[in-house]
Amino acid sequence: MKxxxxxxxxxxxxxxxxCIASAQQVCDEVIVIVDTKTTDSTxxxxxxxxxxxxxxxxxxxxxxxxxxxxxxxxxxxLSIDADERLDQDMVAYIRSINLNDDSxxxxxxxxxxxxxxxxxxxxxxxxxxxxxxxxxxxxxxLPRKAHSRVEAKKIHKVRAHLLHRTYENYSHWLxxxxxxxxxxxxAMYQKxxxxxxxxxxxxxxxxxLRKFFLKGGFLQGVDGLTVTLTTVLRAYFKYLKCIEMHExxxxxxxxxxxxxxxxxxxxxxxxxxxxxxxxxxxxxxxxLPSGKSEVKTKTSAPAKEYKxxxxx
Length: 312
Hints:
This protein is of the alpha/beta class. It has 2 domains: 3-167, Alpha-Beta Complex (Spore Coat Polysaccharide Biosynthesis Protein SpsA, Chain A); 170-251. The chain is built from 7 helices and 13 strands. It has helices at residues 16-23, 42-48, 61-68, 88-96, 170-190, 199-214, 221-251; strands spanning 3-9, 29-35, 52-56, 76-79, 84-86, 106-115, 118-120, 128-135, 139-141, 150-152, 155-167, 278-287, 293-300. Strand 9 (139-141) and strand 10 form a beta hairpin. Helix 5 packs parallel to helix 7 (221-251) and helix 6 (199-214) packs antiparallel against helix 7. The longest helix has 31 residues, at 221-251. Mean pLDDT is 85; it is low at 262-312.
């Protein structure tokens, strides 16, 4: 089967071996892109499992996944996350595909999302169709730093399943809401978007209407309410954190482009924060309550990021 699996990873030593083994059921090559800020044994474990390993500073969701593609030996790409596994019906389906048929550019599979061992199906969590298998010359990831997806003209939806160990437990779910909202806020800030003061409230209200009523959350018990509330919190804090970043930049204009560490799809425990800054003396003075003055500081951006670092 001439398919290359690509996996982006940040501190995924607990999941990476299982993910690689799952992908190897249908792929004869697996590539793991390890975030350069990774501090655990992800790269070592990936190599031992038979994957080709490259190191790249995190570029954002879409750009990081797209960065892996030129390293692939095959045109068909299976892009999965470290916490995802192929269900047996998905394995059987991929094995049956005629990859020489150019009538399909990409395949989307139903994703089952879990909290621990509990399958969440409420409020749009199922069927959660995601494109995971695509031909790199006819499809590819959008250059979005958050919420990226594969864009293709001819996408075939398959009823087979991808298993997603989304959250370890409900506490982990809340941690990830924090991580995802930070990543999303950073992506908005990078694009120069400036939310209004009412944006957090308005977007949270829209999220509530969409999940609780349009997606039927009010009919789906505790799961429906849980999905609704976590979606509302993520929307609210996404815009609130972006506003916070702009306010910080107004005080210290030269804010660096350092991202929250790794995409939250692969880094659920790192919430990120306002982009980091370094202080330098500018000579401007600020009056203290005592009547004395102090030198006011501002920040300078670090050198341009995203230099490619690779190693086999």
